[in-house]
Amino acid sequence: MQRVAIAVEVAAYDIDLIEASKFFGTKFSFASSVTADEIVIQGDVKSELFDIIVEKWPQIGEDIIDDLGEQK
């Protein structure tokens, strides 16, 4: 089973989705893509993703990031 992480509502914080997707792809060495208002990052990156988002984009506070668990 391939794992992916999905970052949603990122554009609401004035973040360029294409630039963010490129950043994640480079940071994690996995493919990432933009669809509508979300960024899909391939690979098991969840454990690092929350810290990296807050570090790179401080306007997104830790308190508004949620882990929605396993989805099908």
SSE series:
EHEEH
Mean pLDDT: 87
Shape, per Cα inertia axes = globular
> What is the tally of helical segments?
2
The biggest sheet, with number of strands, parallel, antiparallel or mixed sense and barrel status, is: 3 strands, antiparallel
Taken together, the total number of domains comes to 1
Radius of gyration: 11 Å
Structural class: alpha+beta
InterPro entries: DENR/SUI1_TIF, SUI1, SUI1_dom_sf
Organism: Octopus vulgaris (Common octopus)
GO molecular function, one term: translation initiation factor activity
Protein name: Density-regulated protein homolog
Quick take:
32% of the residues lie in helices and 19% in strands. It has 72 residues and is of the alpha+beta class.
Protein traits:
single chain, 72 residues, alpha+beta, three-stranded antiparallel beta sheet, 2 helices, 32% helix, translation initiation factor activity, DENR/SUI1_TIF
Explain what you see.
With 72 residues, this protein is an alpha+beta fold. The chain has one domain. The protein has two helices and three strands. It has a three-stranded antiparallel β-sheet, covered by helices on one side. It is globular and about 35 Å long. It starts with a strand and ends in a 16-residue tail after the last helix. The relative contact order is 0.21.
Fold blueprint:
Elements (H helix, E strand, L loop, with lengths): L3 E5 L8 H12 L3 E4 L2 E5 L3 H11 L16
